[in-house]
Amino acid sequence: GLVKVSLCAGGATNVIFWQRDGHHPGEPIFVPRPGGTSEDDGVLLSPVLDGAAERSYLLVLDAQTMEQLAAVQMPLAMPSDVHGLFWMDDAHELLVHV
Predict the structure, then answer these.
(1) Within 10 Å of residue 23's Cβ, how many Cβ atoms?
(2) Which residue among 26, 32, 78, 92 is the one 20 to 30 A from 85 at the CA level?
């Protein structure tokens, strides 16, 4: 799942999360709302693999509340990444010379 932890909520720790059984989100990115004025005013975007359906979707969450705003279905199963993409030296050289 995805977890939001606020350590500055008036001295108390505030934890909000999004989780679905069998759904595996990738690393989210924050997209600020144009003209936004408060902290976390925007959305989180995360690719999610639905293991049972063998398909993926782009999850859109309200960054303040972690409530789901949308799930845009993808026509394929997109594998999860681990904090970015990693290339073997040979593969990188092939891409550079194409």
Answers:
(1) 18
(2) 32
Q: How far is CA 76 from CA 21, 24, 46, in A?
A: 19, 14, 15
Residue 50 burial class via C-beta count within 10 angstroms: exposed 0-12, middle 13-18, buried 19 and up = middle
Contact (CB, 8 A) for 69 and 60 = yes
CA distances to 6, 33, 74, 96 from 57, in Å: 27, 21, 5, 30
Distances 41 to 37, 38, 44, 46, 51 between C-alpha atoms, Å: 7, 5, 10, 17, 31
pLDDT tens column, 39-76: 899 999 999 999 899 999 999 999 999 999 999 999 88
H or E, element range at 73: strand 68-73
Residue 64: the pLDDT is 94
Instruction: Report helix, strand or coil for 32.
Output: strand
